[in-house]
Automatic annotation (TrEMBL):
SUPFAM superfamilies: Thymidylate synthase-complementing protein Thy1
Protein name: Flavin-dependent thymidylate synthase
Similarity-based family: Belongs to the thymidylate synthase ThyX family.
Naturally occurring in which organism (per UniProt): Deinococcus hopiensis KR-140
Annotated pathway: Pyrimidine metabolism; dTTP biosynthesis
Protein encoded by which gene: thyX
Length: 239
């Protein structure tokens, strides 16, 4: 994953210069999480995050106390292929989305082409496996390119004929890039990461999930450290 030096808060998960995740804004921090939990017994406070607070975050995560992790937000701008977006948008709880409209604007010529093609997994019907050298990579790239050229060309021709944008876009493929603002809270983001930065998830979606996690982690460092420790089973460093 590469970071853009002039805009350090943007990551390019697919390394094609088109797909990106940018950190737009955030509200809240680890302290707010402990204050939201401590308000139940009148113990919220303005002191800096303490070792006791860190222990509390660990306790909350380990015992499934989710609501204190909801008093914050992280907004990303996500530019991703439509097939990735279709998976991200399935996350309904604690996630807000606004997307570019192909009814308002003529869609840009932005196509994702896999740098390498994978094969269908033999056992898991949803999954893929790396090419074992038997896949005609060049042939696959040629077919992909022809399909894209044909579809995007048809889109342009329909518009030139006077067909409305909302109908003409119907010929465009899932590899077309779309762009959205997504706002998560930490609870919904961690749930998203558990499902989408997982070996069972689609590789390209996994790269986008990882980028979101990477951008959010410095904003809630203790929460992410404890959450990673919980999910890897490793003791957190320095805790
Ligand atoms: C590897 C993988 C493969 C997938 N394959 C498919 C597929 O083939 N087809 C397909 O359609 N989807 C598929 N999905 C999508 C999946 O079923 C979920 O819709 C998606 O991951 C969002 O998860 P979620 O419902 O937990 O998240 P959210 O929608 O954010 O919900 C968060 C949590 O809130 C609770 N919740 C939300 N809505 C309800 C509700 N209506 N009733 C009760 N509790 C609720 C649940 O506890 C849920 O876990 C796949 C997901 C993954 C990760």
């Amino acid at each position: 994953m590469t970071a853009n030096a002039s805009a350090p808060l943007t990551l390019f998960p697919l390394s094609d210069g088109l797909g990106s995740v940018s950190l737009v804004q955030h509200v809240g921090d680890d302290k707010m999480i402990t204050n939201a939990a401590r308000v139940s017994f009148g113990g919220d406070n303005l002191a800096p995050l303490s070792a006791r607070d860190e222990k509390l975050i660990r306790y909350l995560l380990r015992h499934g106390h989710g609501s204190p992790f909801e008093h914050n937000l992280i907004t990303f701008k996500v530019v991703c292929p439509i097939f990735v977006d279709r998976q991200v948008v399935r996350h309904r709880v604690g996630v807000s989305k606004n997307e570019i409209s192909g009814r308002y604007v003529e869609l840009e010529e932005r196509n994702f082409t896999p740098p390498t093609f994978r094969k269908q997994a033999p056992s898991n019907r949803q999954a893929s496996v790396e090419d074992d050298g038997t896949l005609d990579q060049e042939g696959a790239a040629r077919v992909w390119e022809e399909a894209w050229r044909g579809a995007f060309g048809a889109y342009g021709r329909l518009l030139a004929l006077g067909v409305t944008r909302e109908q003409a876009r119907g010929v465009l493929p899932l590899s077309l890039y779309t762009e959205s603002y997504y706002t998560f809270n930490v609870r919904s983001l961690l749930h998203f990461l558990e499902l989408r930065d997982h070996e069972g998830a689609q590789w390209e979606t996994r790269l986008f999930a990882r980028a979101m996690g990477e951008l959010a982690e410095p904003l809630f460092p203790v929460t992410f450290r404890e959450w990673r420790a919980l999910h890897t089973g490793e003791a957190p460093q320095g805790a």
